[in-house]
Write a structure and sequence with these properties.
The complex is a heterodimer of chains A (387) and B (237). Chain A contains 11 helices and 13 strands. By secondary structure, chain A is of the alpha+beta class. In chain A, the strands form 3 sheets. In chain A, strands 1, 3, 4, 5, 6, 7, 8, 10 and 11 form a 9-stranded mixed beta sheet that branches. In chain A, a hairpin with a 6-residue loop joins strand 3 and strand 4. In chain A, helix 2 runs antiparallel to helix 6, helix 2 runs antiparallel to helix 9 and helix 6 packs parallel to helix 9. In chain B, a hairpin with a 2-residue loop joins strand 9 and strand 10. The chains are: A alpha+beta (387), B alpha/beta (237). The structure holds adenosine-5'-triphosphate and magnesium ion.
Chain lengths: 387, 237
């Protein structure tokens, strides 16, 4: 207790020097938490959006389907299995390659047929319910922008049906939707399932079937293999992991800065305060007490920093968690869901672990240089003789 | 185990400092005793061993030979902890360069030894105010050492040494950095404490202003005691 009282006195007495260190440390504190919070928030948001808009509660894939090889698409379709026909629990999607000619250019795309009445995914398929002669198509805003397509525009689509026969027709853009999930946006157009089945001469067929998020069990079926959420989020998880590694490096770097600042302060202050240490000993402190005092002083930087960070950083972090952070333009081309606005997510665990790590390590870093104290000769120290 | 008021006994004491490959004998064959209530100066030319002797009495350093007993405890056989306890409870120090703790206020500096002793807040407050009254600094409680004159600093140091009412105060050249007026002021304060509290004072000094206050004068030369005299008419009745 004495060490805490005296350390507090010394720190407050040292004034500006203490506060500079504390401010630097509190910055590190906040940036660490903030950085983790954004990654966590992004992770949560992107997972949710991806689940809601693309993968649902998992997907049944036709056994030949390989999303990384569009050339397999010609074989990756089949009659939808009986058990997958419930509109309440499943949404079949038929995928095929096609070519469009927007503004005289040629562009290879994917056509994805989806039931306008589907209830599984939360993107606005009902706008495909359109009774027009052209093929009604819906596309994401990135796709629309890249091809300079607006609602009401016509674009020629050319495809090859099940028999290998080329065919072409005009499509009309009936809706453009905004999404955080680029994998339902880039390089693809959505059309009504039955229309696409007819175009392809693949009546009653699909490439994959999205399951409701509420389904509890999904056994593999003949020709239809179930891929669960974890599998479908694997790429995403990998990317988050990479981001995390980046985050940890930043984290370590910031901590390192803070450690160096504290270590430096400690080494300097032990050197500069030799006379004080000698005096403390003359006045009856044991070396152990002096070492404890200096260690607590160093560690207290961490505690003061945590308090300071909570005072000015708490409201900042809270505000950002509520208002979200706008992501700079262009960040959504990473092939992974990034919302325009990310809402950082700070878990109690994150805050507690960060605080503990910072406090424990600052204590260790504060303790290391104090070994000099036990080597100090008090009679020399009293005179402030440089050793 | 103190016999007849003898607070400090030094027998055949020598102190060697390692110098290069050999040793330098800073104190040699010192035999001294100090009684309760002494007001004694150790005088001698620079390098004669005054500070060394005070440091050993103060358990900040250990003798190389002989036996030095302070308040019944044998310096040199004490553990670090025991030595710290001895200093904490019974010894007060006053230094030539004041050695106040720079970030503490006057009040906090004087309070410091009491914190180490674990006194409660009430006891501390009373003792600190008493000590500051002794040295006449009750109006500077909140000042930092940097805001005080040298004389005021040394008065704070005296208050700090006295606040726990130690049995022995060791003062190494306490007036060396002070002008005549401040020197007399400090010495008079210490003299008053000596007579009222029976505190034993041991000075190391070559300041003539100090010498005229001393009741006993021990002269050192090249680490040896060459003279040990009581000054007549100075409380040696
Ligand atoms: N740590 C040390 N290492 C080696 N020699 C030392 C050490 N401390 C003191 N000495 C030597 O011991 C002798 C006595 O030193 P001391 O400091 O006791 O003298 P002093 O009488 O206090 O002198 P002054 O009046 O200048 O303060 C000196 O010759 C000094 O050089
Ligand atoms: Mg000296």
């Amino acid at each position: 207790m004495l060490a805490i009282k005296l350390a507090y006195r010394n720190l407050i007495g040292a004034g500006l020097r203490t506060w500079l260190n504390v401010i630097v440390l509190s910055f590190s504190f906040l940036i660490i938490i903030w950085n983790r919070g954004i990654i966590n928030g992004w992770d949560r948001q992107a997972r949710n959006d991806t689940k809601n808009q693309e993968i649902g509660g998992g997907q049944y894939w036709h056994e030949n389907y390989d999303p990384y090889d569009p050339f397999t698409l010609t074989d990756a379709h089949g009659i939808i299995h009986e058990t997958l026909k419930s509109n309440d629990n499943f949404a079949p999607i038929l995928i095929t390659q096609a070519t469009i000619y927007p503004g005289g250019r040629v562009q290879s795309i994917l056509l994805k047929g989806i039931e306008p009445d589907q209830k599984i995914l939360t993107f606005p398929t009902e706008s495909l319910k359109s009774d027009i002669e052209e093929i009604p198509v819906m596309l994401g805003s990135r796709m629309a922008e890249n091809n300079k397509l607006k609602i009401g525009d016509f674009v020629t689509v050319r495809w090859r049906d099940a028999n290998g026969t080329f065919d072409a027709a005009d499509a009309k853009v009936v809706h453009i939707f905004k999404t955080d999930v680029p994998t339902i946006d880039n390089g693809q157009m959505w059309v009504p399932l039955q229309r696409l089945q007819k175009m392809m001469q693949m009546d009653g067929e699909a490439t994959l079937v999205v399951a409701n998020q509420k389904i509890t069990s999904a056994p593999d079926l003949p020709h239809w293999l179930f891929k669960d959420q974890d599998f479908l989020l694997k790429d995403f998880a990998e990317l988050i992991k990479m981001k995390n590694v980046g985050g940890y490096i930043m984290w370590l770097f910031l901590l390192l800065l803070a450690w160096i600042a504290i270590f430096d302060t400690q080494v300097l202050s032990i050197f500069r305060r030799q006379k004080e240490i000698g005096t403390d000993i003359a006045l009856g402190m044991t070396r152990g007490q002096v070492i404890r005092l200096f260690t607590v002083e160093g560690a207290m930087h961490g505690i003061l920093a945590a308090i300071l960070a909570a005072i000015y950083g708490g409201p900042l972090l809270y505000l950002q968690a509520v208002k979200g952070m706008s992501m700079p333009e262009g960040t959504d081309d990473m092939g992974i869901a990034i919302a325009e606005t990310i809402y950082p997510y700070y878990s109690i665990g994150l805050i507690v672990v960060t605080a503990l790590v910072v406090l424990i390590t600052t204590t260790i870093v504060s303790f290391l240089p104090t070994r000099r104290i036990s080597k100090m000769n008090p009679t020399d120290a009293i005179r402030g003789k440089i050793q | 185990m103190m016999e007849n008021n003898q607070l400090i006994t030094i027998q055949n004491m020598a102190k060697d400092y390692p110098v290069g490959r050999g040793y330098f004998r800073a104190l040699n064959d010192v035999n001294l005793t100090f009684k309760r209530g002494e007001f004694t100066g150790i005088v001698g030319p620079s390098g004669s061993g005054k500070t060394t002797l005070l440091n050993i009495i103060g358990s900040l350093d250990v003798p190389s030979e002989g036996k030095t007993t302070v308040l019944g405890q044998s310096i040199g056989e004490l553990s670090h902890k025991k030595a710290a306890k001895l200093r904490n409870e019974h010894l007060g120090f006053i230094f030539q360069t004041y050695n106040l703790l720079p970030v503490y206020s006057v009040y906090e500096n004087v309070e410091f030894p009491l914190l180490l002793l674990g006194k409660n807040a009430e006891e501390r407050k009373k003792a600190v105010m008493d000590a500051l009254e002794w040295v006449g600094l009750t109006d500077k409680l909140k000042s930092r050492p940097a805001q005080l004159s040298g004389g005021e600093c040394q008065r704070v140091a005296v208050a700090r040494a006295m606040v726990k009412k130690p049995k022995i105060v060791l003062a190494d050249e306490p007036t060396a950095n002070l002008d005549a007026e401040n020197s007399h002021n400090i010495l008079q304060t210490m003299e008053k404490m000596n007579s009222e509290l029976k505190t034993t004072f041991i000075f190391a000094t070559h300041d003539d202003k100090v010498k005229k206050y001393l009741h006993r004068k021990i002269s050192l030369e090249d680490g040896r005691v060459v003279k040990d005299e009581l000054v007549e008419g100075m409380g040696n009745g």
